[in-house]
């Protein structure tokens, strides 16, 4: 009886991990000093090393982040993307996020550079906007990803910028988790 109960617990725990692998959860909050943190969390049914590849390998990035993508993985490097597959990463419509730092298989910090789709005021004040992406092993075959965007400015322009990334980042990370729905 005890062995059957333990087996059922193990099966149930595995089922929960499988469900969590498909969810993108918004756990955003404000710090004690009033700064916004746009925080999204989800679990991938992959080891940390495998999950890391989906953020640091051009071919895997193109599966979910944008049809045109390139990463120069080094401190001072950049993640370059373009949502228009007919354009290049050097086109003015491309998005460039500089790599502030990284710890292999654990963390990437991107300096988010606002492009012409955002107000001039927000672009002029975006010097602190960053995305910190953490890779946390749950077990050998599940990794929790925590994306925290920090460095938001204040005011109506920044409220619109925050709303854009809130919606856009959820959509983008759902594109990543969708790759594993049938697995």
UniProtKB/TrEMBL annotation:
Family annotation (Pfam families): AHSA1
InterPro entries named in the record: ASHA1/2-like_C (IPR013538), START-like_dom_sf (IPR023393)
Signal peptide: 1-21
Family listed: Belongs to the AHA1 family.
Gene3D superfamilies with a match to the protein in the record: 3.30.530.20
Protein name, UniProt field: SRPBCC domain-containing protein
Superkingdom, natural source: Bacteria
Domain Activator of Hsp90 ATPase homologue 1/2-like C-terminal: 48-180
Keywords: Signal
